[in-house]
Every structure is written in structure tokens, then in C-alpha cells.
Specification:
heterodimer; A: alpha/beta; 2 domains; four-stranded antiparallel beta sheet; 12 helices; globular; B: 355 residues; mainly alpha
Chain lengths: 349, 355
């Protein structure tokens, strides 16, 4: 049966985000982009954060580290190893970023500075958190890091510029830079989206491998459920700035307890399906300033009732799931996403 | 595998070689471009309607055909154009730029006497303009749409839109006449004995002569004109820096730098500003070359004995040798700064290839 979420949930976690709100002040008041985000990730764990673009998944993580745009308003609580990050002085956040918490981004070409050598960029990451390090020692460490991410002939590569690297190599450089200071948490924001399919797999395997080697916790932000299914331990599904469902990866795919999750899983193309049967969730995600009342997903939901239009659903615990749906416990049995995601013909709403 | 990508940063030795090669090729091309400039300048003087003899012969004597004919012969103006051209180029190769109709001195002597004054002024103006322009541009971009941005933009708009002669006169009135904190015209107080000419830079020569009073005076004379000239440059540079910085600061590698733990000053200078060096260098070097012959108004207002005021006198009196001489100096300045800028591009941006 459903039960409200315990306050104590994830208290021992490495990173614990509670009720995080990020908004942008506009002409007609504040536009909420992240609305009461709750997340946590433990040591050695891979948390998949899934959502469409604009759902607030990246913004939530950036704001947690103080990397939001200047006009963004942030409130809530983000605790890293028990210490509150929201409202922390910028200097202290800087000392944390790149040292204990690192990030890598979607497009490795635009994420690397085009006029600095790859070696200098990694060396800078070291220098920023250890000013005493000698140049030789730093160079040695850079070479070790390049070897760690399997860049061949690192001595020849260290003085090259990003444009002299291939896409996959650039992302490996980003990874080398991110793990340079032995962080405890690595946030990977769509790390494979801009890469070729074959390279995607290499990068994901490398991240997994590093996670085990270095004992990292990994937050994997993606819109690709396939990546999550293959690599995450636990998954949080985000819609319109809040977590709508959270569960261990197997359970999420075995028995999704939120209609949006069901829609997402049903939209994964399968080899056995012909193209005209491809499912997509009807409608489009809400605009920032035009959130529907009640449950933000109700205009696109095949199960929506009156209560969904009026009352924003609280997060319920259903078995090992957390789900923000009024009918989390009473959704019909899941048929694995074969055919339609919804009882009635969801595809032509 | 011989990889085309690894040719640049991977091996700095080949870069040096490529650079040397490039400079040599440009060096070979330069005399031909220069010849083109000389030819153009020479031909342009012949299409003017005025008679250069008016500069040589007084008005009364113009009615005396004998004197006119003698003057024509004396200055070689009776010969056909192609011959005059060949003689000029031949002389030029020996370093002879002809004799000025007005000063009756060799043009090269005049230019050598006046160039250092202009260089000193323009150099000081460019230093002020670049430093202030870049600083204001960076501040305006970083504090976009705040009061700091508005002030910086107003300052640069003022600098690039208020006419130099007006600003020069206004500042002269305020600082030199009203408050009397800065000296007025010229390069040094006429009551002082100028130092022996070594570099031609009044500030440096006074220092070399060990005359600190004269040095302070020369420096004080430099303040107003270089500030007026520098302000116009600062306006252009700060607007360019602001626009380019706004674009670069939105790029993703800025986020990467912040995520690494870099502070804001490092993010702005090391990561963002380095990426806009190419357009900034372009505008600085172009301004410099332009001001060598383009500081006319400033030189006139402040009675600065430089190339600009020489050019104006020459143009007014149809002093052909002087006009062509100044044109060549301007052309050479552009050629040299262009070459230096191209070299600077390569150092500033690893993706630029020399071809």
C-alpha cells in the first residue's frame, strides 16, 4: 500500500538533495524549472536521472553545486557528506568542485577550451586544488590520468589541442580531468549523447570501470532509458522539475508505477517492432511558465481523473518504488510495454 | 601514422619552421606590395587639378613665364610622367624620397624627424586605449545589464563618438587653462632645453639625458593628447571585447572551468579572454597602423610635431614628394603590423594555420 516518504530517507547518502527549487525571475513572477527535487546517491552507487530535455534534470544538479545561471533563484537543501551546500560561500563551493565532486558534460568538444592544450587543462584541474604541486609531478600525474582513460601515446598527446582529438578521445580527456583529484562523486550530464554509438558503449564501460576502481558514486543524467537500463543501480525519473518515480533499475523496468515512466519505457524502439508501431507519449512537456494545475503530467496521461487536474500528487511509497501518482498503487498490471502503454489507445490522444 | 592533425601543437619544432617559412614568403612579397603603393600614390598626385608650382613659386612670379619654366625644370616637372616615375622609384631605391617643395629639406629627413613624435604619441595612446578598453569591455560583459555595464558603455560610446578636436579643446581648457594642472601645447616646455635626440622619444631621451625635470614635463605634455587619442581607441576596443566576451562566456567550456573549481577571475581571463584574442589583436594592430598617419586632428589640436600635421601641410600645399613620402610610411606601417598580427594570431589561437 502507499505510504508517505520518510523524512529519514537517504540521510546517510553521499549526496542528498531535498526539496530543491530552482526558478528564474521573469516578467510574470518566478518561472519554476526545478520544483521540490528529492534525490540521493550513496557511495559506490550509480544513480540514473532520466527525463526529457527541459525537465530540469541538469539544472537541478548544476544548482546543487552552485553552477546555476546568475539570474536563477535556488532554495532547498543539498547535503554532501552531511554538509549543506546551498548558501555556502562561493569559495568553499569552489574548493569542493573538481576536487570531491566532478562533472562531465554532453559535448566534449565545446566543453574543452579550444585554445588550451589538453595537458594544460588537466594540469589546471590539479593545480586548482593543490597549489604546491610541482610542474613535473603534475605532468607525471596528467600522463597517468591519460593512461587511465586509455589514451594511446599520452606523451605525444599532452601538448595537443582538443581539435586534434576525436570525439570519444575528447570525452575521455574530460573524464581524466574529472577524476584528476580522486573525487567521491562524479556527475555525468548526458556523457554519451554527442558521441557515435560504438563510442558511447566504450565511454559508458570506462565510467563503470572507473567507478569500481576509484570507488566513485556516479550520477548519470540522461534522456536515454537504454543507457540507464544497462548501467544504473537506481533510477529517478524527472518530469517538469520533480521526481515522479524512483526505484531500483530492475524494478523500475519490471513494474513502473508512474504513467510517465510507462510511456517512456513503451517509447523505447524494439527490434521486433515495425516502424509504424513506434509509440510516443502524446502531447509535449509543459512550458516553463505554463505548468498545468494538479499533476503536471495529467494532460498527457491516459489514466488522468478529476483529482489529477486539481491536486498535485504527493510522493508515495509503493513496494520499493517511490511514485508521485495518485494511482501509483492501483495502476493496471504492466505488460512490459509491448503494444500500448495505456489501456486505451494512448497514442492518439 | 603521418597524421595531419598532429602537425601543429604536437611538434613545436615544425611550427617554428612553418612560421619562418611564412615570414620569408611574406618578406619576399612585401617589396612588390610596396611598389604598388608607391605607384598608386604617385599616380594619384598627377590627377589632382592643382599645380604644385604654386607651392614653389610665389604668386607674383607665377606671371613670369621664365621663372615658371625654370622652376619646372628645377623640380623635374617638365619631364613626361613615365620618366618622372622611373626617376622617383630609382631614387627611392637609394633611400632618396625627394625634396619637399615646402621645407626644401629631403622628405626622408623630415619624416625621420617627425616619426618618433608620432610614434611616442600613438604608442602611449594605444597603451591607454588597449588597457582601458579591454578592462571596460571585460567589466561590461561580466556585469552585463548592470550599472557597471551602463557606465562602461557610456564611456566607450562617448570616446568613439565625440570628435577629437572638440574633446581635445575641451580637455585643454579644463586641465591646462582652467585648473592649470597639465601643460598645454607641444612636446616639452619651450623654455626648457630639449635633450639630445637619441631615440626621438621625448620621454626616453630626457631620461637618457638624466634630466628628471624635463622628463616629468615631457610626460605631462604627453598625457592629454595620448588620453584623447586613447579614448577613441578604448571605445572601439571595449565594445568589441564586450560583444565577444558575451558570446564566449555562454560557451560550455566556461561551465567546465567553473566545475573544475576555477575562480571567476581565472574563468574570465584564462578561459574566456584567451578565446577572443584574435579579434582584439586585429583591432589593436589596425588602430595602431591607422593612427600613425591618422592622428592628424590630435596632432593639430595639441601642436604635436608629428607625421599627421606634416601630412596636412603637405596636402594643403600640393607638396608631392612629401605626400608620397607620408603615403609610403603609412603603407609600410600597415604591412608591418599586418605581418605581426598574423604571427600573433598563431600564438593566440592554435587552430590558425599559416598559409
Amino acid at each position: 500500500m502507499t505510504a508517505p516518504i520518510a523524512e529519514a530517507d537517504g540521510v546517510d547518502a553521499l549526496l542528498r538533495i531535498r526539496d530543491l527549487n530552482v526558478g528564474f525571475s521573469g516578467r510574470n513572477g518566478t518561472l519554476p524549472a526545478v520544483r521540490g527535487l528529492d534525490l540521493h546517491v550513496s557511495r559506490g552507487e550509480v544513480l540514473g536521472v532520466v527525463g526529457e530535455s527541459g525537465s530540469g534534470k541538469s539544472l537541478g544538479m548544476l544548482a546543487s553545486l552552485g553552477l546555476q545561471a546568475r539570474n536563477a533563484l535556488v532554495s532547498g537543501s543539498v547535503r554532501f557528506k552531511g554538509q549543506e551546500l546551498i548558501g555556502r560561500p562561493r569559495r568553499e563551493l569552489r574548493a569542493l568542485r573538481g576536487a570531491q565532486i566532478s562533472m562531465i558534460f554532453q559535448d566534449p568538444l565545446s566543453s574543452l577550451n579550444p585554445v588550451m592544450t589538453v595537458g594544460d587543462q588537466i594540469r589546471e584541474a590539479l593545480y586548482l586544488h593543490n597549489r604546491q604541486m610541482t610542474k613535473q609531478k603534475a605532468t607525471q600525474r596528467v600522463l597517468d590520468l591519460l593512461r587511465l582513460v586509455a589514451i594511446p601515446q599520452p606523451q605525444g598527446r599532452i601538448n595537443q589541442y582538443p581539435h586534434e582529438f576525436s570525439g570519444g578521445m575528447r570525452q575521455r580527456v574530460m573524464i581524466a580531468m574529472a577524476v584528476a583529484n580522486d573525487p567521491e562523486l562524479l556527475v555525468a550530464d548526458e556523457p554519451t549523447t554527442a558521441l557515435d554509438v560504438t563510442v558511447q558503449a566504450q565511454i559508458m564501460l570506462m565510467l563503470r570501470d572507473l567507478k569500481d576502481k576509484l570507488g566513485l558514486a556516479l550520477v548519470l543524467i540522461t534522456h536515454d532509458l537504454g543507457v540507464v537500463a544497462g548501467h544504473a543501480d537506481r533510477v529517478a525519473v524527472i518530469y517538469a522539475g520533480r521526481v515522479v518515480e524512483e526505484a531500483a533499475v530492475r524494478e523500475l523496468f519490471a513494474d513502473p508505477r508512474h504513467p510517465y515512466t510507462r510511456g517512456l519505457i513503451a517509447s523505447i524502439p524494439k527490434l521486433t517492432m515495425s516502424e509504424d508501431k513506434l509509440y510516443s507519449i502524446p502531447g509535449a512537456p509543459p512550458m516553463l511558465g505554463a505548468l498545468p494545475g494538479g499533476c503536471a503530467f495529467h494532460p498527457r496521461c491516459a489514466y488522468a481523473q478529476d483529482v489529477c487536474r486539481k491536486v498535485e500528487p504527493p510522493t508515495h511509497r509503493v513496494g520499493t518504488h517511490k511514485s508521485a501518482c495518485h494511482f501509483a498503487a492501483s495502476l493496471p498490471a504492466w505488460n512490459g510495454g509491448l503494444g500500448a502503454a495505456a489501456p486505451e489507445n494512448g497514442a492518439n490522444d | 601514422m603521418p597524421n595531419d592533425r598532429s602537425r601543429r601543437g604536437g611538434n613545436r619544432g615544425t611550427l617554428g619552421k612553418a612560421m619562418l617559412n611564412y615570414i620569408l614568403r611574406r618578406g619576399i612579397a612585401m617589396p612588390f606590395i610596396l611598389l604598388g603603393i608607391v605607384t598608386m600614390a604617385f599616380l594619384l598626385t598627377t590627377v589632382t587639378k592643382g599645380d604644385p608650382l604654386t607651392a614653389v613659386v610665389s604668386e607674383q612670379q607665377m606671371n613670369n613665364p621664365e621663372i615658371v619654366a625654370a622652376a619646372r625644370q628645377r623640380w623635374g616637372l617638365d619631364r613626361p610622367l613615365p620618366e618622372r616615375y622611373l626617376i622617383y622609384v630609382g631614387n627611392l631605391l637609394r633611400g632618396d624620397m625627394g625634396t619637399s617643395f615646402v621645407t626644401r629639406r629631403p622628405v626622408s629627413t623630415d619624416l625621420v624627424a617627425r616619426l618618433p613624435a608620432t610614434f611616442e604619441l600613438v604608442l602611449a595612446a594605444m597603451i591607454i586605449g588597449s588597457v582601458v578598453g579591454i578592462l571596460f569591455g571585460l567589466l561590461a560583459a561580466y556585469y552585463r545589464d548592470t550599472a557597471i555595464d551602463q557606465v562602461a558603455r557610456l564611456f566607450s560610446l562617448f570616446g568613439s563618438s565625440v570628435p577629437i578636436f572638440w574633446m581635445g579643446l575641451a580637455l585643454l581648457f579644463v586641465f591646462s587653462v582652467y585648473f592649470q594642472v597639465l601643460p598645454g601645447l607641444g612636446r616639452i616646455d619651450p623654455r626648457m632645453s630639449p635633450p639630445p635626440v637619441i631615440t626621438g622619444f621625448m620621454t626616453i631621451d630626457t631620461l637618457l639625458a638624466g634630466d628628471m625635470t624635463a622628463f616629468r614635463d615631457a610626460l605631462a605634455h604627453l598625457v592629454l593628447p595620448s588620453f584623447v587619442l586613447g579614448w577613441t581607441v578604448a571605445g572601439t576596443i571595449s565594445r568589441l571585447v564586450r560583444a565577444n566576451m558575451l558570446e564566449v562566456m555562454e560557451r560550455e567550456f566556461i561551465l567546465t572551468a567553473r566545475a573544475k573549481g576555477a575562480g571567476e577571475i581565472r574563468v574570465v581571463l584564462r578561459h574566456a579572454f584567451r578565446n577572443i584574442l584574435v579579434p582584439v589583436l586585429t583591432v589593436i594592430s589596425y588602430s595602431f597602423a591607422y593612427l600613425i598617419t591618422g592622428a592628424v586632428l590630435t596632432e593639430s589640436v595639441f601642436a604635436w610635431p608629428g607625421v599627421g600635421s606634416y601630412a596636412v601641410t603637405a596636402a594643403r600645399s600640393l607638396d608631392f614628394p612629401a605626400i608620397i613620402g607620408v603615403t609610403i610610411v603609412g603603407g609600410v606601417m600597415f604591412l608591418i603590423t599586418n605581418l605581426l598580427t598574423d604571427i600573433a594570431y598563431v600564438l593566440a589561437n592554435p587552430r590558425v594555420r599559416l598559409n
